[in-house]
Specification:
Blueprint: H1 2-11, E1 15-21, E2 33-39, H2 43-55, E3 59-63, E4 69-71, E5 76-82, E6 90-93, E7 96-100, H3 105-114, E8 117-118, H4 130-136, E9 139-140, E10 143-144, E11 149-155, E12 161-165, E13 171-172, E14 175-176, E15 182-189, E16 191-192, H5 195-212, H6 232-238, E17 245-246, E18 249-251, E19 259-261, H7 267-285, E20 294-296
Parallel strand pairs: 2-5, 3-5, 4-20
Antiparallel strand pairs: 1-2, 6-7, 7-15, 8-16, 9-10, 11-12, 11-15, 13-14, 17-18, 18-19
The protein binds flavin-adenine dinucleotide.
Length: 303
Amino acid sequence: MQETKKSIENFFKGKILWNEPMKKHTSFGIGGPALAIMYPSDEFDLSNLLKIAKKEDINIYFKGSGSNILAHDDGFDGFVISLSKSFKKLNISKNKVFCESGVMLGSFVKKCTSNNLTGMESLVGVPGTVGGAIKMNAGAWGMEISNHIKKVKMMNKEGEIIELKKNDIEFGYRFSSIKNDLIISSNFEFENSNPEKIKKLKLSASSSRKNTQPLKFRSAGSVFKNPENYSAGYLIDKVGLKGMRVGDAEISKKHANFFLNLGNASSKDISQLILIARKKVKEKFDINLELEIKTIGFKKDIF
Ligand SMILES: Cc1cc2nc3c(=O)[nH]c(=O)nc-3n(C[C@H](O)[C@H](O)[C@H](O)COP(=O)(O)OP(=O)(O)OC[C@H]3O[C@@H](n4cnc5c(N)ncnc54)[C@H](O)[C@@H]3O)c2cc1C
């Protein structure tokens, strides 16, 4: 590894944090050390890094800002690559928007709405980067980021650029078919609207968020996807788990699909709550809850 480290440090212009705890880089505030967290400064950095990782058979995980991730207490034996410190270009020309993946979703929404472009208002207050939002097909109250995508530029693990049109990608509820590639930038197209309508939609989204979500605590947002015809929070509430604690992890009393880190929760604590909620909901409603959050460093099929 010393040789690999040296050869990466020789060309890499971005930032590298070796042996860095994931807990410092996830909204949950949970997770042991990754071999490295790396912030490439441009496509050249990124492509060379991926080529070395491939050659040396080093695991790779793509991260945005870590707002939808549960990282294992034992960490991740590999490189975590994020574009969130660079890749920040955002250009608007009439109703067309070009945005790199490291832009924060909040800035993207703000730029769109202040240019009287409609479609992203409900995403106000959703944390994360635009790259992460596309991968997750982030959405709220009927709006989804994929509704306005035209094209996506990505890099595969061989360090090659791929460009896909919207129709080449499958998007669904908190799902995209983008699996192994890193989203670098995207092109969007929006309709115009009037500022008053846009303001109303934004206000309604942010007040609903404040009223229903435990925003004062560390979490990764909704833990489970909503199954058909139900909300996961309702089901977890109905099996009596609101407020249940394991260690410093709690199923929120305000919104039962938000699991909170009240201080020093471990991935083990959160995992236990996940397994308990799943079991109880299955027993009472015969419904299998599917995880919305992504996990890193876990053994396959633990959930
Ligand atoms: C308080 C709170 C409220 C939330 N509310 C909502 C909500 O209303 N609606 C909603 O949809 N989500 C919500 N979320 C979840 C989260 O904010 C979104 O999923 C967000 O889009 C994740 O972005 P990120 O950059 O943090 O991605 P990360 O959490 O870093 O990563 C999420 C997934 O995307 C992948 N990924 C990240 N960046 C890239 C990239 N550039 N290329 C390829 N793959 C990538 C990762 O590998 C991982 O699989 C909420 C979270 C919190 C903490």
